[in-house]
Amino acid sequence: MLPGKTLSELAYELKYQNQSKKDYLVNTQNLIMDADYNGTMLTMVNDATNESTLLGINDVAHSQIAQSLGIPLRYYERMRDSNPQLLAENVNAWFNNEPEVRMVRTLHGNARAFLSDRYRRIDNYPLAEYVLPILQDLDVSFESSEITNSRMYLKVVNKKLTKEVKPGDYVQSGIMISNSEVGMGTVTIQPLLYRLVCTNGMVVNDIRKATRRRHIGKKNTVSTEDYTLYASDTLLADDQALMLKIRDTIKAAMDEVHFTNLMDVMKNAAEVKIEAKNIPKMVELAAPEFGFTQAEGEGILDHLIRDGDLSLYGFSNAVTRYAQDVQSYDRSTELEEIGYNVLTMSPKLWSTLQKAEAA
């Protein structure tokens, strides 16, 4: 897996962001998009105080503005790149013609999310404050962590739970905790398998084995003086049911029986040999089924051939090994999940892929 940040670096960044972020509830009729040679900006106009707040707009917020206004993202991005003034005219027209209250989440003077007024803020800082002591009590190793524009990630490993898939190929039990403050996913706790031979991480992408909590709740309340949302520090602490479920899921993911069951899946996959006459074609056919690109497929194929393990287990490991080659931490984690999906694909799909023949 990608190394990401150290635990101390993560803690510093979480604290810094927690002090710097600010949230607003704004009617879209009080929002104005402007465009100049620097790109696009968003102005929040407060009629009550006759004041304005100017914000930059990051990629996540742009995509959410497009979705909320029903503008196809491809066309939105074309206007953004080639004619930002036209984009601003389109956005402002829809802001005024179909007004609604939206939550604008900001960080360092930039709009980082454009969300529903029912969006429930479960933020990274209080979540980390709760889970880190639990993880430290379990005596786990913090292997990787990161904060991207989309999500926070914590990946930890319990070195006491180590088993062999095959001679010399050791795997350890772990978990991944992730959260998005910008509407790009749920609070999620998933089992993680850590392969020592090449430091691959495989995220167990199985809804039956994961805890998720959506960021949806009752409408948020806003200050009468401006658009600023009231502080949300107590939101997570008040949700005792979620806290208990997070605690129990973390402990369950470290359970030896659960780990043994996952190891059995890996051992069985190691016995399933690749019989396709055209392995490059097999990987090509798998790409749309599992959501990796042609370029990614070429990298996966390279690792599969170089590692020499021509089995279903080897194929899944090639995916998670390639996850270390990409620059995006978000995409790397997605590929770690895809590796598990490959490992557990249906016999019918595996049979179809094995029929790949030379062109």
The total of beta strands comes to 12
Q: Describe the largest sheet.
A: 6 strands, mixed
Strand content: 25-35%
Q: In CATH terms, what is the fold-level topology of the domain at 17-116?
A: OB fold (Dihydrolipoamide Acetyltransferase, E2P)
Low-confidence stretches: 222-227
Radius of gyration over alpha carbons? Answer: 23 Å
Q: What's the pLDDT, averaged over the residues?
A: 88
For the largest beta sheet, what order do the strands appear in spatially?
Answer: 1-5-6-4-3-2
What is the top-level CATH class of the domain at 17-116?
Mainly Beta
Give helix and strand order, one letter per element, not per position.
Answer: HEEEEHHHEEHEEEEEEHHHHHHHH
Give the fraction of residues assigned to helices: 40-55%
* Structure class: alpha+beta
At CATH level 2, the architecture of the domain at 17-116 is Beta Barrel
Number of helices: 13
Q: Cα distance, first to last residue?
A: 35 Å
| Overall body shape | globular
